[in-house]
Each structure stands twice: as structure tokens, then as C-alpha cells.
Specification:
about 400 residues, Aspartate Aminotransferase, domain 2, Aspartate Aminotransferase, domain 1, 2 domains, 7-stranded mixed β-sheet, binds pyridoxal-5'-phosphate
Length: about 400
């Protein structure tokens, strides 16, 4: 029988990514097994009763838990350094479950304004329809957080860096204000990944991911995760919510993410190096009006980004004069970089947020977030950085921006 001891919390991140949470079956397989099963069998009726009463810890049903999903959850928790992790079917399932499982009518939520379109929908449209009051603040302005958090609040939600304008929010300062207001701080850490930023170390209570992005990182399957140390939240609120509403991932998709994690450290280093080269190239380009990249000294919160993050990340946003028409001409002129709204993929992907990911917002909401008609978001892939910049250069010349 293979040795399946308790996970070793002292191993370094690169090791956790490869071995964390690995549990081998009686067949002693090398690779993590895919337990493609919805249910589990009991030796007798008494055992089934004990399992449902919680007197015997075992798998009951894959909406509750599944061995492949458990391997993923353990690996992610070891990487993040948290006690708890719940994997979900998508990043949005993680964002929504992390909020709705703990909120009720009459509660108040404060969120940063610069959010991914679907996160904005949850805060702006969905939660208020359940009687939850929500308020947006400019995330980079601490005085706005202070003002909004003078009143009792249940949850604070933010993204840093934000999608797509790469705003950086002071996690430690917002965590302190949130806690004084009685709120839990929920951070969407998708753009940074746990290798570049650990929100819990700055005081966040809950961290959420779309594992679809860098963790799978190869454009194969959707997934998400919720992590933290707050036992009351994970055991009493999130677990029953999961069991009875079912945002659980497929074991196959959990396995894809497990395998993606094994190369995350290596991929992320190269993604970040390529993104920095691309950001520098664009900053020096006469046809580009403005470049936003947290690893560039010209970024408005460069000092904070350097203190909070271990690298600039994989996404570069840039803007040129001439609005949507010119942006579309530029995108259509690219020969290699693909037009796609996904990010964190091995392939370089580019999108025009105003007409895609943030299309359903009003022009005023977009302008408050800094999403202009000339802004494009580039997720820098793992091609040779010079092939990426050559492609951008030729498309910029063709578009005549
Ligand atoms: C910041 C952020 N949060 C959450 C999500 C949602 O992830 P998923 O597409 O896996 O549902 C995305 C997706 O683009 C994102 O960029």
C-alpha cells in the first residue's frame, strides 16, 4: 500500500505545487488519479447512517467531496498557507459562493469599483435584489474606504490588481478598516496568483480564485477556489451552502488544475518576464498613449505593488488615441496574438474590455473604472517575447494609431 501521510506544511511552494495533497490509491499510481464517481458505497446501512450523522468521516457524494477534488483543495491550501480550501466549478462560482453563503437581507457590502464585469454584476445587481445593500468606492483612495467603512459592514470585496485597469489596492490598510467595521475582507487574487501575492498575510479573511486562469493556464477547463482560515465561515456557512446548492467542480476539471499547478511556478516566472518585456516595449512605442503594468515604475501605485506583490503579473493594459475604431483595427491586424477574453493562458490573448468583458456596464460606469474606448488588455503568454512584440509592432503600424 502506498504511504499516504499527513501533508507536510514545511515544504516550499515549488514542492507543494508538485506533491501537495497527493494521495495514492491501492494501485500505487504515480500520477494523481481521477475519481470520476458521483457516489460511494457503504458496507451496510448502519455505516451510511453514521456517515450522514457525521460520526464517520468518509466520502458520501461528490457534491459534498471527492478524492480528486480533495487533492486539489489540499494542494491549494498548502500553497496559500491556509487551513481551508473549497474548490468550485468556476471562478464566478467561487466569488458568488464566498459572498452569498455568509450574507443575508439587511447586510451591507462595500466593494472597490474596478472589478471584472461579472463580479460587478454580483455586487451591483444581484446582491441588492436580495435586500443586501452595496456600495462602491474608488479602491486606490483610502479616504473613500474610511468613509464607507464608518458604518457596520458584513463584507468587503476587492480585486488587486484589478481587471482590466490593474489598479493596486492597499490590502493591509483596507483589511484594518474592514475589521473595524466588523466585516470580513474577501480578495479576488486571480491576477496575482498565490505565487505573487498572499492576501491573508496582509489581513484578508477569504481569498478567491478562478483556477481557469494561470492555475490551469492552458485554456482547458473552468474552475475556482475559496481559501482562508476562518473556521466559522468555512465549517458553518460555506460547507452547508456547498452541500445543498452544488457549486462543486467535476473531478476531471479538478485533475486538470492539479496537473496545471505542477508547472505554475515555472510558467509564472516566464509569463512575468515576458509581460515586463512587452510592457517596456509598449512604453517606448510612439503610437501607444499609456501603458498600465504594476511592474513598471510609471504605474501609479508602483511602490505599493512592489511592497505587496512579488512581480508585476502577466497582464498588460494599454491605451492609444483614436478610441474603439482604432482599437478594433489594431486587434484585427494581429497575426499571432489571439483575440480572446480569457487570460493567464500559455498563448498571448488580447481583448477590448469596453466591448467584451465590461460591455454590459454603462459608459459612465466604465469611465469611472478607467475603461476607455481605446484601452486593450493583453494577457502575455509563453511565446518568445520578441515574437509577441514583433506582432504588436506590426499591428500598431497597420492600424496607423
Ligand atoms: C478577476 C476575475 N475574477 C473572476 C473571474 C471569473 O472566473 P471564471 O471565468 O473561471 O468564472 C475572472 C475571469 O475572467 C476574473 O478575471
Amino acid at each position: 500500500m502506498p504511504k499516504n501521510g499527513a501533508p507536510d506544511r514545511n515544504r516550499r511552494p515549488a514542492t507543494q505545487l508538485v506533491r501537495g495533497g497527493l494521495t495514492r490509491s491501492a494501485f500505487a499510481e504515480t500520477c494523481e488519479a481521477i475519481f470520476m464517481t458521483s457516489g460511494y458505497i457503504y458496507e451496510n446501512a448502519e455505516q451510511a447512517e453514521r456517515a450522514f450523522k457525521g460520526e464517520e468521516q468518509r466520502y458520501i457524494y461528490s457534491r459534498y467531496a471527492n478524492p480528486t477534488v480533495t487533492m486539489l483543495e489540499t494542494r491549494l491550501a498548502l500553497l496559500e498557507g491556509t487551513r481551508f480550501c473549497r474548490a468550485t466549478a468556476s471562478g464566478m462560482a467561487a466569488v458568488f459562493a464566498s459572498l452569498i453563503s455568509q450574507l443575508k437581507a439587511g447586510d451591507r457590502v462595500v466593494a472597490s469599483r474596478a472589478l471584472f464585469g461579472s463580479c460587478h454584476y454580483i455586487i451591483n445587481d444581484l446582491l441588492p435584489s436580495y435586500g443586501i445593500k452595496t456600495e462602491f468606492v474608488g479602491g486606490t483612495d483610502l479616504s473613500q474606504w474610511k468613509k464607507a467603512l464608518r458604518r457596520k459592514t458584513a463584507c468587503v470585496f476587492l480585486e488587486t490588481p484589478s481587471n482590466p485597469t490593474l489598479e493596486i489596492i492597499d490590502l493591509a490598510a483596507v483589511a484594518e478598516l474592514a475589521h473595524k467595521a466588523g466585516a470580513r475582507l474577501v480578495v479576488d487574487n486571480v491576477f496575482a496568483t498565490p505565487l505573487l501575492q498572499k492576501p491573508i498575510e496582509f489581513g484578508a479573511d477569504i481569498v478567491v480564485y478562478s483556477t481557469t486562469k494561470h492555475m490551469d493556464g492552458q485554456g482547458r477547463g473552468l474552475g475556482g477556489a475559496i481559501l482562508g482560515n476562518d473556521e466559522a465561515f468555512f465549517e458553518d456557512q460555506l460547507t452547508p451552502f456547498f452541500r445543498h446548492t452544488g457549486p462543486s467542480p467535476s473531478p476531471f476539471n479538478a485533475w486538470l488544475v492539479l496537473k496545471g499547478l505542477e508547472t505554475l511556478d515555472l510558467r509564472l516566472r516566464q509569463h512575468c518576464a515576458n509581460a515586463l518585456s512587452v510592457a517596456r516595449f509598449l512604453s517606448d512605442h510612439k503610437r501607444v498613449k499609456r501603458v498600465l503594468y504594476p511592474g513598471l515604475e510609471s504605474h501609479p501605485q508602483y511602490a505599493l505593488a512592489s511592497a505587496q506583490m512579488g512581480g508585476g503579473g502577466t497582464v498588460v493594459a494599454f491605451e492609444f488615441r483614436g478610441g474603439r475604431k482604432k482599437a478594433f483595427r489594431f486587434l484585427n491586424g494581429l497575426a499571432m496574438v489571439d483575440i480572446s477574453n480569457n487570460l493567464g493562458d500559455t498563448k498571448s490573448l488580447i481583448t477590448h474590455p469596453a466591448s467584451t468583458t465590461h460591455q454590459r456596464l454603462t459608459p459612465q460606469e466604465r469611465s469611472q473604472m478607467g475603461i476607455t474606448e481605446g484601452l486593450v488588455r493583453l494577457s502575455v503568454g509563453l511565446e518568445d517575447a520578441e515574437d509577441i512584440t514583433d506582432d504588436l509592432d506590426r499591428a500598431l503600424a497597420k492600424a496607423g494609431v
